Amino acid sequence: MKELDHELTNALRREDPPAGFAERVLRRVGEPPHAEQTWGPPLGGPIRLKPDPTTVKATTAVKAPLPSAEMSGPPAPARLPFVQWAAAAALVAAMAGGINYVAMQKERAEGEAAGVRVALALHIAGNKLQLVQTKINQLHEQPDKNSNQ
Amino acid sequence: MGEPAPLPVIEAADEAPLDDFADIVRHQQGMVFSIALHFLRDRQAAEEIAQDVFLHLHQHLDLLKSPEHVVFWLRKVTTHRCIDFARRRKWSQVSLDDVPELPAATATGDPLLQRKLRQLVASLPETARAVVILRYQEDLTPTEIAEVLTMPVATVKSHLQRSLAMLREKVVRVIGDARV
To answer: With an 8 Å Cβ cutoff, is A4 touching chain B?
Structure first.
């Protein structure tokens, strides 16, 4: 266990950031906050810089609540429209599919009802024809009986 | 580099000019960058997060009352940002085997084992990863980690035990138990 602790300590020891890191941070501190208006900060809440960071003290910094564990997502403003469009497209497609499905179901039901009606009509017509055939047969048989008598 | 570098003393909340901020950046950049680097295994993302953390610190410097408070704040904000960042990019997560290995920063120990350990630590769930990094990079106690991550001490200890057991098992499976 001690050996694993030791190896973890070695594996996770601190490393220096790339050269010029501090200078880049200080340069960003001095930059005008134009990026906030278009994209917002890459990570975390909005950054509001002091008017003149070389002279103004920290008391003039904009008061904002300390960041909590739940921080707002950074690239969200850039990704959000795409996500919204994708969600809207999916919703429209689902609605169109639903409408199409309902129309097909209705058409199929009407077709089946029409089929039932045709079958009923054919059945009735068949019965009538059978009845007529029976009558004709009876008429043919009666003259034969009369002539025999 | 293992021990936190001493901070310039901030006299009072309203006495924090940019020079002091620059000193804080220079003294604490290794800590902030390394937390992000070990968490994300991505130097570019780590630098971006570290820069944002310091920019955020610049806004809130007047609220921080002591150098210890500054260090605590930096650890807390960096860790939470890393957790958020890792959760957001999960959908595009690449295999750990595809991630380029960080340049070896250690002159002692077993480089192969340490490389594998960094890979395995990066594969832990976000909260457990943060616990392990704060424990072994920052040498914090479970109580201090619990304060940084705003969670019960028992939960921190549980994360540590489970993570170490998992790391040991995987290391033994991959490398053998001769060295752990």
So the answer is: yes
The two structure tokens encoding residue B104? 């070896």
User: Is the Cβ–Cβ distance between A4 and B164 less than 8 Å?
Assistant: yes
Q: What residues in B contact A69, CB-CB < 8 Å?
A: 80, 83, 149-150
Summary mean pLDDT of chain B: 82
Cβ neighbours, 10 Å, residue A109: 10
Amino acid letter for position B139: D
Q: B49 near B92, Cβ under 8 Å? A: no
Cα–Cα dist B27/B71, whole Å: 10
Chain B (135-174) residues lying within 8 Å, Cβ to Cβ, of chain A: 136-137, 139, 149-150, 164, 167-168, 171
Complex ipTM above 0.90? no
Distances (CA, A) of B36 to A10, A88, A90, B76, B147: 17, 36, 37, 12, 19
**What pLDDT score does B63 carry?**
86
Enumerate residue ranges in chain A where pLDDT < 50.
35-76
- Which residue of B52, B132, B164 is in closest CB contact with A43? B52
Query: For the CA atoms of B138, B140, B146, B150, what is the dihedral angle to 10 degrees?
Result: -30
- Report yes or no on whether pTM surpasses 0.95: no
Token pair for A104:
């097909």
Q: How far apart are CA A93 and CA B131, in angstroms?
A: 45
pLDDT digits (tens, 9 = 90+) for B108-135: 667 888 888 998 999 999 999 999 999 9
Cα–Cα distance, B31 to B58 (Å, whole number) = 17
